[in-house]
Structures are given as structure tokens and as C-alpha cells.
Amino acid sequence: MSDNELPNSPHWAVNLGAEYTIPLSDGWGATVRGDGYWQGKSWARVYNLTPYDRLRDWTKGWKAFTIKICTSVSTRGFRDFSEYSTRARS
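User: That's the sequence. What structure does it adopt?
Assistant: C-alpha cells below.
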């Protein structure tokens, strides 16, 4: 077992994300965001027995749409941030 790979330790994992905010009128803003994750093959146990211990590569993605409101509450410059969002998984 000295030459075996560690379990749940893929050689590669990639995480990507992108976000874009669209300013709207009167302190409103809309944000669109997407994220993705990919992980390469790995082993489930230290024995590295093919095909029993082999874990396949996998991919996961997320999408989100958020609307933010920024309103002034007092004359001292305090600002209240309220956020409304929807999230969908793919």
C-alpha cells in the first residue's frame, strides 16, 4: 500500500465563478451569478482496488439572480441593505 494514492484526493479540481451587477434606478441593483465545480477521478479507500475503490469525476453548477435595495434610513448616513434573491441549481 505504500505506492497507493490517498482516498478522496483527486489530482485536479477546478472551481469557476462569474458575477455581473446591473445598476438600476433609485438604489436598486440586479446581480446575475454562475458557479461551476469539477473534480477529477479519485479513490474511495486506501487499497486502490480497481474498479471497487475508483470514484468517477463529477461536475456541479449553480445559478443565482439577486436584487438588492439600498435605502437611506437617517440623515447620519446609515444605510439599510435589504436583499431578495432566488437560487436555482442545475
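The two ends are 38 Å apart (CA to CA).
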